[in-house]
Design brief:
L-fuculose-1-phosphate Aldolase, about 15% strand, alpha+beta, single chain, 8 helices, binds zinc ion, about 45% helix
Length: about 240
C-alpha cells in the first residue's frame, strides 16, 4: 500500500475509533492527516457526516491556507484549527477536534488537570486552555489563536467547547484523545468525593510521561482500538 493510501485508510480508521469512543457529538467533530510527501496539504473529514462515515470518496484535500484543493464534499468551517496548527508545527502530522463529554465538563471547571491516573500524568502541566470563545473557529485568525494557545504541547482544551489534539501520527492523536477523556472523567469523579491533596513527586510524574509517549505504543493501542471499534460496529 502506498503512503498516501495508508494515510487515507488511517483517517477512516481514526474516525471509526473516535465515533466508537463516543466523541462524535453528531457530525461536529473532525480529523485530519498531512498528505505524505506534501506537508502543505492535508486530508480531512468533510462536514455533514459522522466520524464513522469517512470514506475514500468523501475525504477532502485542503491546503495550509484552508482552501479545498481536492474532493467535492462541504468542508468544516473549523478547518482553520487544522491548517493553522499544521502551519506552525512541522512536527505534527495529525489533528483531531472533538467534543468528548467529560473533557468538556472538565474544561468548564477551570481546574488544572492533575496526575490522578496515568493519563493525567500525560497532560498535567501540558494542557493549555483556550478561552477566547466557546463558538466555532471560523477563520484563519481564530485558528491561529488556537494554534498559539497550543504552543508546543499536544492538546489544547477549548473551554466549554472541546479539545484540539495534535499528534506526530493519527495513532498518537487518537490515543491521546482517549487518555485525556479518561483523565478528565477520573478527576471529575474523584473531585465529587474530594481530593486529599496527596501527590506523587513531580519527577516521578515526568518519568511516567516519558514512558507513555513512545510512538510504537501509540500504534499498538490505536490498532487495538480500530479492531475493537470494527467488532462493535460489525464492520
Ligand atoms: Zn467544535
Amino acid at each position: 500500500m502506498s503512503a498516501i493510501a495508508h494515510a487515507r485508510q488511517e483517517l477512516i480508521h481514526a474516525g471509526l475509533v473516535l465515533e466508537h469512543q463516543g466523541f462524535g457529538d453528531m457530525t461536529r467533530g473532525h480529523v485530519s492527516v498531512r498528505v505524505p510527501g506534501n506537508p502543505a496539504h492535508f486530508f480531512m473529514k468533510p462536514h455533514s457526516i459522522g466520524f464513522d462515515e469517512i470514506t475514500e470518496e468523501n475525504i477532502l484535500t485542503i491546503d495550509i491556507e484552508g482552501e479545498v484543493v481536492g474532493g467535492t464534499a462541504r468542508p468544516h468551517s473549523e478547518r482553520y484549527i487544522h491548517s493553522e496548527i499544521f502551519r506552525v508545527r512541522p512536527d505534527i502530522q495529525a489533528i483531531i477536534h472533538a467534543h468528548p463529554l467529560h473533557t468538556i465538563a472538565f474544561s468548564a471547571t477551570g481546574q488544572a488537570l492533575r496526575p490522578l491516573n496515568q493519563g493525567g500524568a500525560m497532560f498535567s502541566g501540558h494542557l493549555p486552555v483556550f478561552v477566547e470563545t466557546m463558538d466555532l473557529i471560523r477563520n484563519k485568525a481564530q485558528g491561529a489563536a488556537v494554534a498559539a494557545c497550543l504552543g508546543q504541547d499536544n492538546a489544547v482544551l477549548m473551554r466549554s467547547h472541546g479539545v484540539a489534539m495534535a499528534g506526530g501520527s493519527l495513532a498518537e492523536a487518537v490515543v491521546l484523545c482517549v487518555m485525556l477523556e479518561e483523565a478528565a472523567r477520573i478527576q471529575l469523579q474523584a473531585s465529587a468525593i474530594g481530593l486529599d491533596g496527596f501527590a506523587f513527586p513531580p519527577e516521578d510524574v515526568a518519568a511516567l510521561r516519558q514512558k507513555l509517549t513512545r510512538p510504537d505504543q501509540y500504534q499498538v493501542n490505536f490498532d487495538y482500538l480500530v479492531r475493537k471499534a470494527k467488532r462493535a460496529m460489525r464492520l
